[in-house]
């Protein structure tokens, strides 16, 4: 089976550097701490469906430029 994760979701995010000495550097780059949850697909069909849900067609004008 192809490697990958489905049902990805960020469950928590926080400015973990608030009040710490390097706070200004972290804020300059938008640094956050996150927790996430995801799982391995049960089978190849579930993985394929997840990939298809993310797919989109590029507009023709974009395809011609690149």
Written account of the structure:
By secondary structure, the chain is α+β, with helices and mostly antiparallel strands. It has one domain (6-64). The protein is built from three helices and two strands, in the order βαβαα. The chain has helices at 23-28, 44-54, 60-65, and strands at 6-14, 33-39. It has a two-stranded antiparallel ribbon with strand order 1-2. The longest helix is centred in the C-terminal third of the chain and has 11 residues, at 44-54. The model has no long low-confidence stretch (mean pLDDT 81).
Helix-strand makeup class: alpha+beta
**Strand/helix succession:** EHEHH
How many structural units, i.e. domains? 1
Radius of gyration: 19 Å
Order of strands across the main sheet: 1-2
- Percent of residues in β-strands: 15-25%
Fraction in helix: 25-40%
How would the blueprint of this fold be written?
Layout: E1 6-14, H1 23-28, E2 33-39, H2 44-54, H3 60-65
Antiparallel strand pairs: 1-2
Highlighted features:
two-stranded antiparallel sheet; 66 residues; alpha+beta
Short description:
The chain has 66 residues and is α+β, with helices and mostly antiparallel strands.
């Amino acid at each position: 089976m192809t490697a990958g994760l489905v049902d990805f979701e960020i469950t928590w995010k926080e400015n973990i550097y608030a009040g710490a000495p390097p706070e200004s550097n972290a804020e300059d780059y938008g640094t956050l701490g996150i927790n996430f949850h995801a799982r391995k697909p049960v089978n190849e069909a579930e993985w394929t469906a997840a990939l298809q849900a993310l797919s989109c067609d590029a507009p023709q004008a974009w395809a011609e430029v690149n």
